[in-house]
Amino acid sequence: MSDMHAAQEKSLLANENLVEEQEAVVSRLENLLSRGKRAVDCSTFC
């Protein structure tokens, strides 16, 4: 029984790590997209 519990905890930790990694990737993509948008705006209006 305790083996199953340990496996569940390990799985939960792995899922939390994946979520954190995904959030970091999304944040980086949002930054890149907003930078790209600014570059496009500047090229059309500068």
Automatic annotation (TrEMBL):
Tell me which species this is from. Answer: Chlamydia trachomatis serovar D (strain ATCC VR-885 / DSM 19411 / UW-3/Cx)
The entry's protein name is Uncharacterized protein
